[in-house]
């Protein structure tokens, strides 16, 4: 967040300064008429999952032992060669630019994208993603492809929901009425979000989160990603199958869309 401070002289004897020490910038992009895109992405992801089976060795992640998520170091959704992926990539680059605008100048070379890692998660009955964060990435994102529930399905409690934890808070307490001494600060210690198809949510990579177990007869699909920027000076080559490095023309399109205030970004 841009450093916002306000000095207020209220007397000759004291100066009061209001300034947030920490804040958590986020961007939400909701696609208009998302259905054609998410249904295509679902087909593509299932096809790529089938192709991945029997391929590289699984790397367990956030409680998952097998499946497309566990090969996340070996592929990149943004590099798949489909027109729908190109459309998705445009939404992602626009979203990243909007996020960077919250924290600095989106044209600052230090905030230019070094590389993006992007993978798909398919959760089947009973599967979940345990609490984790994506440090040392700079900004991470979730995109919901499929909730796994029909419009008339009763969703058991928070099944398949994503929970984001207020930075630092999870280390202290479970908060709320569950703690011995609840405090007004407990009110937003965790934010539980119901999956919405076609929603892209960007957040600082240090924010811990989890996906509660999916309880249903279908499957839940999301796409996740980590974005790294030049300023990080990490010993990562950003080459090979794990990485996507955006093309200049696509970044330029994202810049123009942002300047024209394309209505797909709602907040
Ligand atoms: Fe995650």
Description:
Strands 3-9-6-11-4-12 form a six-stranded antiparallel β-sheet. A four-stranded antiparallel β-sheet has the order 5-10-7-8, with no helix packed on it. It starts with 5 loop residues before the first strand and ends in an 8-residue tail after the last helix. It is about 20% helix and about 25% strand. The chain is globular and about 75 Å long. It has helices at about 35-50, 85-105, 250-260; strands spanning about 5-10, 15-20, 25-30, 115-125, 130, 140-145, 160-165, 190-195, 200-205, 210, 220-230, 245. The protein contains three helices and twelve strands, in the order βββααβββββββββα. The protein is an alpha+beta fold. The protein has one domain (about 20-260): Jelly Rolls (Sandwich). A hairpin with a 5-residue loop joins strand 1 (about 5-10) and strand 2 (about 15-20). The structure holds fe (ii) ion. Fe (ii) ion binds near residues 132 and 209.
Supply database-style keywords.
267 residues, six-stranded antiparallel beta sheet, four-stranded antiparallel beta sheet, globular, Jelly Rolls, 3 helices, alpha+beta, binds fe (ii) ion
Q: How many domains comprise the coordinates?
A: 1
Strand element count: 12
Task: Detail the poorly predicted runs.
Answer: none
- Mean pLDDT equals 88
Main pleated sheet? 6 strands, antiparallel
Share of β-strand residues: 15-25%
Q: What CATH architecture label applies?
A: Sandwich
Class from helix and strand fractions: alpha+beta
| CATH homologous group name | q2cbj1_9rhob like domain
Question: What is the CA-based Rg, rounded?
Answer: 20 Å
The first-level CATH class name: Mainly Beta
Count of runs of 4 or more consecutive helical residues: 3
Proportion of helical residues: 10-25%
